[in-house]
Structure formats: C-alpha cells, structure tokens
Design brief:
Blueprint: H1 39-48, E1 50-55, E2 58-63, H2 64-77, H3 81-93, H4 108-143
Antiparallel strand pairs: 1-2
Helix pairs in contact: 2-3
Length: 144
C-alpha cells in the first residue's frame, strides 16, 4: 500500500526540499578515505617492523614481535612470575611438539577395539570400491 504524500510537502518519508540531496550528490561525498587501515592491519605491521637490539654488545635487527618475546624471556629468567606464566602460556598454546594426548599409552583392550574398528572400515571401503567398479563395467557393457 502506498502512502499519500501530505499536503504540506513535509513529514515522514518526505523531508523538506532544502534538506534533500541534490541530484548527483551523495550523502557522504568524500566517502571512506583510501588507505585507512583497520586495527588488525596496523597491529600486524607494527609487530613486523624491524628494530635494532643490543645483544651482548652486538647489534642485530629483529622484528618487534621477536623483540617482545626476547624481553619477556629475559624477565622470566630474572624471576618475574607474570612474565614466566605468560611465556609458558604462549609455549603451551603455540606448541608444535607432540601433545599429551598423543603420547599416552593405549591399553591392550582399547587397542583391540581400535584394530577391530579399523578392519570394519577397511572392509566397508573395499566393498564400496568393488561395488562401484562392478557398476562401471556393467554400464559400459550395456552401451555397446
């Protein structure tokens, strides 16, 4: 249902003419400035920026991220408990070594169950592959 315009020319959905956008003019003429980055991009670039460190009398250039980790390591080694906790948390989160669950020893009963399940899966996969190969050969024969 369309609403009829009010006789006064202004109201809901019908703003005064002087406040309406002119033809060819946008409500945001400049728009979003080009090159404005979001926080994640700024953070990434800041952490990647190289800085110079003095390590035992030698200067070396490392990323800001690595410098922060090295500083945290120094504080942890000097006895700062918060730095040690945070460093160990990072090590736990980003660990690439074997996890605790993968190094557990499985009991003989559990291993027998896993082996039986594996054999069932393999038998089902073999049966599926032979079914599809039989269907493929019969369909080829019917076309000839």
């Amino acid at each position: 249902m369309k609403r009829k315009k009010s006789s006064t020319g202004t109201g809901y959905g019908n703003p005064p003419i002087q406040s309406q956008f002119k033809p060819g003019q946008s409500g945001n003429p400049r728009g979003r400035p080009k090159g404005i980055l979001n926080f994640a991009t700024d953070l990434k670039r800041t952490l990647e920026a190289p800085i110079t460190l003095n390590d035992g009398g030698k200067t070396k250039r490392v990323s800001t991220q690595k410098a922060v980790l090295l500083r945290m390591r120094e504080k942890a080694l000097k006895g700062d408990a918060r730095a040690l906790d945070r460093l160990l948390d990072f090590a736990r989160i980003f660990s690439v070594g074997p996890t605790e669950a993968s190094t557990k020893i499985v009991s003989a009963d559990d291993q027998a169950i896993l082996d039986a399940f594996r054999e069932e899966l393999l038998a089902a996969a073999r049966a599926d592959s032979t079914d599809t190969s039989d269907e493929g050969s019969t369909s080829r024969g019917s076309n000839e």
